Each structure stands twice: as structure tokens, then as C-alpha cells.
Amino acid sequence: LGLGAFIGVWQTARRAPQDDLLRWIGASWAVLLGALLGSRVGFVLFHLGYYQRHPAEILQLWMGGLDWPGALAGGLVALGIVWRYWRKPFGQLADGLAPLALPLAAGAWLGCWGSGCAYGAPLPGWGGMAAPDESGAVLRRFPLQLLSVLALIALAAWLEVRRPKPAPAGSYAGQVALGLGALMLLASFLRADPAPRWAGLRPDAWA
Description:
The protein is mainly alpha-helical. The protein has nine helices and two strands, in the order ααααααββααα. Strands 1-2 form a two-stranded antiparallel ribbon.
């Protein structure tokens, strides 16, 4: 996650006007902080019964427990707060901060690969890759985390190459959101980790 956040902030700073660079970097960190807080709040709410019995663990982020729909909500709330106080046109602000999204998502998938979350179904044979689950058991599984990282990198490169200059304000952010949403939706159907279901779909599919 740290690596993804660093690359995202660097990409934002690389595209920002140099006379306003510090403000763009500050806005980037504000959105990242909102995403982090939202991801933790979302995870706690999804596991509220456990945290009601162990409230001291709510702030113990090193024990794990982040939720990407919560990160999305928290990041959007933070984006709205930045827009409210900066008064920059919303489409321009969204375009400037959109480079945060794809590297952060790729970093999250890499983190999931190592920590045993968002894994694919068991796949013995040449197509499977070793990956742990939440209990620590390592099996050869469908390489969902790796394929998601590669797909996000490919999406970021494709958007960079085909990005028109100049473009209508908000168009780049819209393309990032659409591409990221499509990839996450596809990945939600390939995940084998346990999750509650709403009308037959995982919460991340709804998000």
C-alpha cells in the first residue's frame, strides 16, 4: 500500500503545475488519508460483532483489516472536502488526483497476495500459484492477485498513451473510475475468500 501510495503521489506531482505543486501533493495525501480511514471503518462495520467484543483492536491497523469499498467511500469524501475548501473546478480536481487510484489499487492487490486475502480458487497444476488464505494455509490457486496487478498496470499505461491533450475536464478521472470499476467487478466474481452476500453478490461487487 505504501508503494502504491508513493507512486500515486509521484504521478500526481509529475502532472501538477509547478507553481501549485505543494497544494496538489497536500490534496493527494488528504485523499489517501480519507481512503485509509474509510477502509478501516468499512472493515470494522463488516465485522462489527467481533470489534464490539474487542474494541481496543479497532485502531490496531498492523493486525490487518482494510476494506476497499470503504476506501472508495472515504477517498470520495476526502475529495469532496478538498474540493469544498480549494474551490477548484471539480472535474479539474478529479483529473489531477485520479493518478492516485490505479497504483494504490495495484499495491492493495500485492498486499493481499502476501497477507492471504482476495485470493482465487484452488488451481492445482501449472496454472496455479502459491498463495496463502486468511488461516495461513498456502495452496496453489488461480493467480487472481497477480493478474489484477498486471491488469491495473496495463490499464494505467493504456490510459497514459491514449490520453488526449487537451481533454474535457473530468474525462480522465471518469475513464480511470470506469476501468478500475470494471476490473474490480470482474475480480469479485473470481475471488474465493469468504464474504457475506447481498442478493447473491459480494459487497465488493456492489461497490
